[in-house]
Amino acid sequence: MVILYLILPLVFYSLVTGVIALILPLQAVTCTLLGAVVTFPVLCYWPYRSDQARRGVIPPMPFRFRGCLPVIILLGIGTCISVNNIISLTPLPELSSGFEAVRDTFYSPPLLIQILGPGVLIPAAEEMIFRGLMFAPLRDRMPFWPAALISAVLFGLYHGNLLQGVYAFLLGLVLAWLYERFQTLAAPWLFHAAANMTSIIAVNTGLEILTEKTDRFVFGTALVLAAVLSVFCLIRIERKTNIKEEEV
């Protein structure tokens, strides 16, 4: 029953997106964007709102960042660049044969659709599903790390191919940690949106060189600076929130 409760929101989101794709002759990203627009308010009004009310969290998604709003954005930027660059140093790009096709699909729509979809609204729907309706209920039943690992693995599998899956898994751990620290979906959503917007801006402005090994100096410098920025932001958030995880 618990497993069914956890996967139903994802099934609903996928079905809505699939139906839109069948009915409307639109690009995949646009269909996913419309799926997020339909799914998010439904999930927010019913399962998430009632689940948060049971925890005594009102409103269900408070915008409380404890002075860390810019730090969360910087963490999203730094994590996006550093994780992408680290993955580029592994054999994963060569092993992920379907990644280029997915990448082309992701960045082929007009810039406005990229910003509204992968940049803002799709992260909101994904955070509702994977952190709000998967991680949070799991966290009620187990310590932080098992709950974070399970939700991150599911988040990675959802993204389909190996390279994106590993990237999503690593980001999923940070996203769960942010939810744990701030106890609101607004924090992981902001991080997720910042990470996706970093990729969108890089691809559309030529800054993608930061994550490509064509210029090793630029690539290495970007990796080091992004990693340092990410560590600084993690430490800053840790100190500002100062929440001790439960030991079970």
From TrEMBL:
Question: Which positions, given as ranges, span the membrane?
Answer: 7-26, 32-48, 69-91, 142-159, 189-211, 217-235
Query: What keywords does the record list, in alphabetical order?
Result: Hydrolase, Membrane, Metalloprotease, Protease, Transmembrane, Transmembrane helix
| GO terms of molecular function | endopeptidase activity; metallopeptidase activity
Which GO BP terms sit in this record? CAAX-box protein maturation
- Keyword Transmembrane assigned: yes
The domain of life is Bacteria
Note the InterPro entries from the entry: CAAX_protease, Rce1/LyrA-like_dom
What Pfam families does UniProt report for this protein, alphabetically? Rce1-like
Instruction: Indicate the segments forming the CAAX prenyl protease 2/Lysostaphin resistance protein A-like domain, all copies.
Output: 111-197
The UniProt entry, under PANTHER family, shows: CAAX AMINO TERMINAL PROTEASE FAMILY PROTEIN (PTHR36435:SF1), SLR1288 PROTEIN (PTHR36435)
Q: Protein name, please?
A: CPBP family intramembrane metalloprotease
**Which species is the source of this protein?**
Hungatella hathewayi
Lineage per the UniProt record: Bacteria, Bacillati, Bacillota, Clostridia, Lachnospirales
